[in-house]
Design brief:
Elements lengths: L12 E3 L5 E3 L2 E2 H8 L3 E5 H14 L6 E6 L6 H9 L3 E4 L2 H9 L7 E3 L6 H9 L4 E4 L2 H14 L3 E8 L21 E2 L3 H10 L4 E7 L10 H21 L5 E3 L17 H18 L6 E4 L3 H4 L3 E13 L3 E6 L8 H5 L5 E3 L8 E7 L8 E9 L6 E5 L19 E6 L2 E6 L4 H4 L7
Parallel strand pairs: 4-20, 5-6, 5-13, 6-7, 7-8, 8-9, 9-10, 9-11, 11-12, 12-13, 15-17
Antiparallel strand pairs: 1-2, 2-3, 4-14, 14-15, 14-19, 16-19, 17-18, 20-21
The structure holds pyridoxal-5'-phosphate.
The site of pyridoxal-5'-phosphate has 15 residues, from helix 10.
Length: about 425
């Protein structure tokens, strides 16, 4: 059986009786007509299935706290869906906290992450009683203690550490290796603990946090990460006589963008993580800690597709045929940033199958604005609707107004129903902060 993150397409994707692509009872051509393109489409059933699988997979370890890594896709509706399923949140900015608050969600199950949190952001987090701040560096320890002191609070914190583990993913989405901007190196931990113990009396250290990268297919790295975290907890216990009882292992589980991607399923990852915790807690004679996990991509990527309309094309004889769509790097910067690969299909009915290998280009003024290089599509023509799969994570959240192009709308679909959850940006909004002097 395939689990959500092992599929390219959302659950319940098929060709319907009209001959069009359909997801969860919604005809994609109808959606494109109704809401216009480019359009982000999120399938609620796929999203909820993955979230439920995560909970189920970790259910045998009672002390698990599921945190959705908001940076993958943050809208008030998406946050509410995860909240209702019992998820907490990993937030990384004032804006993400503001969206959470807008969704009516309190911060009692939220962790604030980031390598350069601002004073204003930390103040906001503390004023809203954030459950944990994952402190990244010495500068932040001092700043946070000062703010907590001013507010008369004892803030519960984790220390973000760099475990020195390399996973085989794109360089820009590796975070656990020694040469990283994130977190305390292992040899800095003792100094941080000493400072918290002796000087920063408004900080309450509860545990350690690491995040080793994203779009990970290997399983051993998670075991290695847990070994490092528990070894450090053991060392701290022996040296300082403090037993930390929380570990946050970050996110990172990969998904299937293209056929050759082979991520493990969440049950397998959960087994490895839970067994590693039991093994190393036992080996180091520690209590089994509270486990925080913060998946982002794997929770939302597969549930999302982007619809585009095909426009112009350019056939360079013997070299390559480009077809251009009405979006591109501003609504999905991942191909130009990390050479990310995607799968796509024509969504509207075609009378016969005439495969053609083309390169899907965006409409932005950069040669690097290519969404998909060399993909076989069914005789793509101007006016066709192109469905690009697996755009639920890190597309809308990374989108920009490059070239003055408006950000697309997002709809949530569910069993034949569709609702706008993010309106298409308007020209008025594009210039609302633009001041003429
Ligand atoms: C980005 C990030 C995550 C989520 O990573 P995914 O690969 O999207 O699962 C979790 N924790 C931290 C600290 C992160 O920076």
């Amino acid at each position: 059986m395939n689990f959500v993150n092992q599929n390219i397409k959302p659950l319940n994707t098929k060709i319907n009786e009209m001959g069009n692509l359909e997801i969860s009872g919604c005809d994609l051509v109808e959606l494109a007509k109704k809401y216009s393109t480019p359009l982000y489409v999120m399938d609620k059933i796929t999203l909820e299935q993955m979230a439920t699988d995560y909970k189920e997979a970790f259910s045998s370890y009672k002390n698990t706290r599921m945190m959705y890594a908001s940076k993958a896709l943050m809208t008030s509706t998406v946050a509410s869906i995860f909240y209702k399923l019992g998820f907490g949140f990993d937030v990384v900015s004032l804006g993400e906290m503001y969206i959470l608050k807008n969704a009516g969600i309190d911060f009692s199950h939220a962790t604030f992450n980031g390598n350069n949190k601002g004073r204003e952001e930390l103040v906001y987090a503390l004023e809203n009683n954030i459950a944990r701040v994952s402190v990244d560096n010495f500068y932040e320890l001092e700043l946070l203690n000062e703010i907590a002191l001013q507010k008369g609070k004892i803030q519960k914190i984790l220390l973000r550490i760099t475990p020195g583990i390399e996973c085989h993913t794109h360089e820009y989405i590796q975070t656990g290796q020694l040469d990283s901007k994130f977190g305390f190196d292992l040899h800095m931990i003792d100094e941080a603990v000493t400072l918290i113990k002796e000087k920063y009396k408004n900080l309450d250290l509860r545990g350690l946090h690491a995040h080793i990268g994203s779009q990970i297919f290997e399983t051993q790295v998670f075991e290695d990460e847990i070994e490092v975290l528990l070894k450090e907890i053991k060392r701290i216990k022996d040296k300082f006589n403090i037993e930390l009882d929380e570990i946050n292992i970050g996110g990172g589980l990969g998904i299937t963008y293209i056929k050759s991607d082979t991520p493990p399923d969440v049950y397998k990852i959960a087994d490895i993580i839970i067994n590693a915790i039991k093994k190393y807690a036992n080996l180091y004679e520690l209590n089994e800690p509270v486990l925080y996990i913060e998946p982002g991509r794997s929770l939302v990527a597969t549930a999302g597709v982007t619809l585009y309309t095909i426009g112009s094309s350019k056939d360079i004889q013997g070299i390559r045929k480009y077809i251009s769509v009405d979006g591109g790097m501003a609504d999905n910067p991942r191909p130009s940033m990390y050479n990310a690969e995607y799968f796509a299909e024509i969504a509207n009915k075609k009378d016969d199958y005439k495969p053609e290998t083309v390169t899907v280009a965006g409409k932005f003024c950069e040669s690097g604005d290519i969404l998909i290089k060399d993909i076989e599509l069914n005789s793509p023509k101007a006016g066709d609707i192109l469905c690009v799969y697996d755009t639920g994570a890190y597309c809308y959240s990374m989108s920009s107004n490059y070239n003055g192009v408006l950000k697309p709308a997002m709809v949530l679909i569910n069993n034949g129903k569709s609702d706008i959850i993010v309106r298409r940006q308007t020209l008025e909004q594009l210039i609302q902060n633009d001041v003429i002097v």
